[in-house]
Structures
1.
Amino acid sequence: MDPVELDALAAQLDTILELDRDLATEVVVTLAEHHDRRVIAPLLDLLASGRANELMVRAAGWLADPGLHRALERLAASRIGGDRGGGRRHAIWNFDERNPDDPISLDRAFALYRTANLAGWG
């Protein structure tokens, strides 16, 4: 994707909360895949609004930006064992709740994917 196409997607970030879910997902995921930091503030808005879907949460993981950490923690708290969401959680937190520190219980495929992406950023 060339810079002009990325700029066109980024132009939609100002109205991210008003976009339909499919278009908002496309914008967030595409910009995150290209490590475009313009998506971070709108992604925070999506996470806070409760409109973030699983792909958007994964995009937040791909960005690995410390500024997203608190919003992801709040989302995790609302999804894991809380009343909201009925205990459903996004795949990014796919681990064994009885033993969350055990690396074997992590979502191995996602962890490898994220590690490979982070290694390629340097």
2.
Amino acid sequence: MVSQQLNRTAVIALIAITVIYFIVRTFAAKAVETLDNAAKDATKPAGDLLSDITAAMNGHKPVELTPLVIQEHHLNWDYTLTQEAERVFWKIGDYQPLLYKLFGTKGRPMKVQYRHLVGRPLTEETI
């Protein structure tokens, strides 16, 4: 009788320990995540400043977007952009208004009135 009661107590204790373990583990993970996010927010300005300083010391200059130039090798025989050129050009937000004027939409051939501009820098003023 005492042995059965001891076994039940041991099983209940094991279950309780398991439940407590998983509860503590869950809350600990959330606490670590919260602390990690707070640390990211707190150290971001210092990290950005350090990145800018090391970039300047190493001669880094920001990339400047040049005017869109559609070369002949960017076009298929039917004046549609090649797959790679279309993927790259349409990804650049500053080029999109020009591309809409030149092509209408993705996958369309270049409008006839703009075909003489192939190989030239394209801006709002030149179109």
3.
Amino acid sequence: MFLLSSFCLKAQFTQQWVNNFCCFDSLQPHTFSYPLGKYVQQDTLTLSFYEDDLQRFRKVDLNTGNDIQNITLTNDTVQSPFYYGGGTIHVANHYITSLIKYNANSGVIKLFHNSMSENLTTDWSNEITVNNGTIAAPLSNLSATDFFTCMVSDSVRIYKFSVNGLFQWMTALPVLSTNSNDKPTLFLNSLDEVLMYVRNADPTLTNYSSRLIKVDGSSGAVLADTIYSHTMGTSHIVFQDFDTLKIAFIDAVGHFVSVASVDMLTMTETKNFTSNVSCFDELEKFAVDQQTNQYYIKSNSFFLGFTVQDVSLFNISLVPESQGQYDFGDIAFNQQYAFLSYSFFNTANNPVNNDILVLKIDKFNGAVIGSTSYNDSRNTDENYLQHYLDTASYYVIFANNFDNISILQEETQIGIIKYNLVTQNIQELQNNESVLLLPNPVQNKVSVQFHTENIPVSYSVCNILGVVMKKDAITQNSVLDLSMLKEGVYSIVIEFQNKSTICKRFVKL
């Protein structure tokens, strides 16, 4: 049973600072800039990214947003390289980076590695040439200090390097499809075995299932290569939960959202559940909250919550995200809330453009507790978007493209936003059932029925962004005309004479 829960916008985000960099309003021609990884230590954020032929590090003061240190690296002054795909991780006070490097003059593709110390001085750098084909998108980020995976022509590969970046072995396995959704992902289990996850296509390239390849971390020998037929469908997303891989996908029969688990040690599969939620767009995020052991899935336009027994907690509609290629982080959690951030097409702007939407959602009932949007000024889709949460603040890192007509060259902006989590002083009655909306969903008019001794005085209708769409006085058992609203999800906030507030949620058809 789905819970169409009532909610009240009780808490909002207060933007503290924004730090934009990388080609922002630059007249120099650049093609692409992309974040590779982040590391937070006390009040300092270290961000690794590349910009065409340069790899860069930037340290930012999280209190002020000001730059602390900037380092630019390049390893080839003769043949200017172009970087794409890779990642940076922080291990033992060092930043290890692995990148795809393409030398346009020679046509040579290489895997480039380096290590930076905590104070951003170079420890070592190394590179190897990729033979037997050309690297094709998509590419996977670095999984650990010495493993990297990518797709090369019609094969998917795992490379291993020593802790000083020296090549040790490579394992290649064939794949049927290089679909953009078939991005290979590396995982490590407690036995130091390497597991590569990739979607497996049928010969028609229309139906997909999950494929897991286990490789010995020392030798590169393939220990197992398993295709899980019970995961037949589309839009597979996966994450690691200790020694278990959790897989969410859209079932091939009925388009129902389904979840399966694979034991990374035994390679055995467990079908957790097939829900009664039909979904016809892409699944974007999937997470299990370790505190509650509840499942959360975000698609292009819905956010779903389940218990492990497939008891639906909620199914809420979202402002649909704008179409494009994205790299989203996991759903963020604290004790009470789940946090989402994504790109959406904001029709409220003039002219309309893509913005970033941030939502704070009660993880038990789906109530949208707070929201805000950020106008990134470039009017384009985000091609990278990550977020993270600490005790009192919420951070969003993004990158987007911009076509600079004056120099006929595409540029990229990278930005970091810090929000303070501020709770507003809005009282809420304990029993929301003292107010009923009939019918719900609403077509044109809705009847508001009160079962309380408190006297209502006014109401406000807000969209999911918290923007007030209509506000007026109200009396007992009123009929409200909502025909002017567009289709979507709204809240109605009713204020009483004693200054208490009740918030109810409804869907406008």
4.
Amino acid sequence: MKTVFNALIDEVIYPIPEGLVENVLIRRGLDFDESFTSELVADHRYIGALADCLYSLLQSINFSESDKSIGALTDQQRKALLARINKLYGSIGEDEVVLEPHPTVYINC
């Protein structure tokens, strides 16, 4: 049987640290080894945990130099992901999140 831990990792798709998933489960009051069931899918704790894990992807580092960009997500993907995250948070009555401007470092300007 699949655990809630495995379900979160599978649903996020992109690799995230297992420790982060464990921390989210603890914060949301979910048991690491709890069975993933159809009832749990609709549980506010699971929906919040999924949104928290997806939000961690938005906090990943992006590097840009000239016309080259190295990072996990494009700006368009980040916006789409943010919309999904805010829909999840909104469905459980939690505040939406916003993308904060990131510091920019210019080299050889």
